[in-house]
């Protein structure tokens, strides 16, 4: 069976009248961004790592959620911007991020992208062989400029013949391969150019279990490769992202803590570089762990109906708003209900969305008070990938409302038809 709903627990933040007022102003479904939780997450990650290894940098993964207001707040806290496209790079500049605090990653970079990043002295991690040629061309055009680059590397992470990568992939498609000699070849090519320095290694791997042991192995391998290939110029070790945040137990049991990851990773960094006069920076690129629990999604109950022996609750929302990967787990949720005069009925029900797809279930086999039209469900832990992967499908994108203590700010308005079908883009 599914989760029990946490009836009216959301009153701790917003009572029914406040939610109803936000509905009237922004539409009957909307995201809520908790800035205080965002600040708390940043401080917890920073403290866990920086208390163990002083030269530590958080590079927030824009692709996880690039709401401009959120990115700007993280920049204020001290986060670097980790971007994987020109769109995200330009957004970082637009919100005022210092260009030397932008980390440009990603598998597809044009020569113009690389030129802009190098002109701006951004951190850049080269992913493929073709990018090496762009950097060499740039060095020829700027012979008097000291050019610093990092390399994203690819090495075998399998344990006892089993790959920890997502969806069972045996090898990652990203980075410059160590095992086939590509890394050695790239290092030799770049070292042959007098004004190019390799200053960092990047090792982001998308793994299924996000185990501490995996991050320990990534860190060890990056340190060894850096000391082997360019020990005198190393400025940073970038272990990528993918660590667990503070995940609800209903979703993941016994997830590692920030301290668990930090203890394993920083111990290696200290061991490898303690004798260095200048300690290379340790870069972490958190995404899910930074923003997942900062967002909730509010959806108004529109109607209930019974088909055979199953009870369905229709809300003004969609599975695409809260679970873009369409996984089957129920998210933690709360019911904010108005005062009903009739007796509260307990039941088991399905929460379904506004689309015409049979699979549009926001939650299955939920047990609790049967909601009534005009009530609201608030779904927790929806900050990661929902905003960026939420398609404009059937309905316009909902509003995003940020709150920090008593201050409430609309940081994205609900779309109108003219914004949904932009006349500068579409031909009518």
TrEMBL record:
<keyword id="KW-0663">Pyridoxal phosphate</keyword>
<protein>
    <submittedName>
        <fullName>Diaminopimelate decarboxylase</fullName>
    </submittedName>
</protein>
<dbReference type="InterPro" id="IPR022644">
    <property type="entry name" value="De-COase2_N"/>
</dbReference>
<dbReference type="Pfam" id="PF02784">
    <property type="entry name" value="Orn_Arg_deC_N"/>
</dbReference>
<dbReference type="InterPro" id="IPR029066">
    <property type="entry name" value="PLP-binding_barrel"/>
</dbReference>
<dbReference type="GO" id="GO:0009089">
    <property type="term" value="P:lysine biosynthetic process via diaminopimelate"/>
</dbReference>
<dbReference type="InterPro" id="IPR000183">
    <property type="entry name" value="Orn/DAP/Arg_de-COase"/>
</dbReference>
<dbReference type="InterPro" id="IPR009006">
    <property type="entry name" value="Ala_racemase/Decarboxylase_C"/>
</dbReference>
<dbReference type="GO" id="GO:0008836">
    <property type="term" value="F:diaminopimelate decarboxylase activity"/>
</dbReference>
């Amino acid at each position: 069976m599914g989760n029990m709903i946490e009836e009216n627990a959301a009153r701790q933040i917003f009572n029914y009248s406040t939610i109803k007022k936000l509905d009237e102003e922004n539409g009957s479904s909307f995201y809520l961004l908790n800035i205080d939780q965002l600040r708390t997450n940043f401080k917890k990650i920073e403290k866990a790592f920086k208390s163990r290894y002083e030269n530590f940098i958080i590079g927030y993964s824009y692709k996880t959620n690039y709401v401009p207001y959120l990115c700007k707040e993280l920049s204020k806290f001290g986060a670097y911007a980790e971007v994987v496209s020109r769109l995200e790079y330009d957004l970082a500049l637009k919100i005022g991020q210092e260009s030397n605090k932008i980390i440009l990653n990603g598998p597809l970079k044009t020569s113009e992208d690389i030129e802009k990043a190098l002109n701006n002295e951004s951190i850049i991690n080269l992913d493929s062989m073709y990018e090496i040629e762009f950097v060499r061309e740039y060095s020829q055009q700027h012979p008097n400029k000291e050019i610093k680059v990092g390399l994203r590397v690819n090495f075998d992470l399998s344990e006892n013949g089993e790959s920890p990568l997502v969806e069972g992939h045996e090898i990652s498609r990203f980075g410059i391969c160590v095992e086939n000699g590509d890394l050695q070849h790239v290092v030799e090519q770049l070292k042959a150019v007098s004004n190019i320095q390799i200053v960092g290694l990047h090792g982001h791997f998308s793994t299924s279990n996000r185990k501490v042991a995996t991050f320990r192995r990534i860190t060890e391998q990056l340190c060894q490769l850096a000391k082997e290939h360019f020990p005198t110029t190393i400025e940073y070790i970038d272990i990528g992202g993918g660590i667990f945040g503070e995940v609800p137990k209903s979703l993941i049991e016994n997830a590692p803590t920030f301290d668990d990851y930090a203890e394993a990773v920083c111990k290696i960094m200290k061991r490898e570089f303690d004798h260095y006069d200048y300690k290379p920076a340790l870069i972490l690129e958190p995404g899910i762990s930074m923003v997942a629990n900062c967002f909730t999604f509010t959806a108004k109950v529109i109607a209930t109906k019974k088909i055979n022996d199953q009870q369905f609750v229709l809300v003004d929302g969609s599975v695409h708003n809260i679970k873009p990967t369409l996984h089957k787990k129920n998210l933690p949720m709360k019911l904010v209900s108005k005062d009903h005069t009739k007796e509260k009925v307990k039941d088991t029900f399905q929460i379904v969305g506004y689309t015409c797809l049979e699979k549009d279930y926001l939650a299955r086999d939920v047990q609790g008070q049967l909601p009534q039209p005009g009530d609201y469900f608030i779904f927790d832990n929806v900050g990661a990938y929902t905003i960026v992967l939420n398609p404009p499908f059937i309905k316009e994108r909902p509003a995003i409302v940020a709150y920090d203590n008593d201050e409430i700010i609309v940081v994205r308005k609900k779309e109108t038809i003219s914004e949904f079908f932009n006349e500068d883009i579409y031909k009518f």
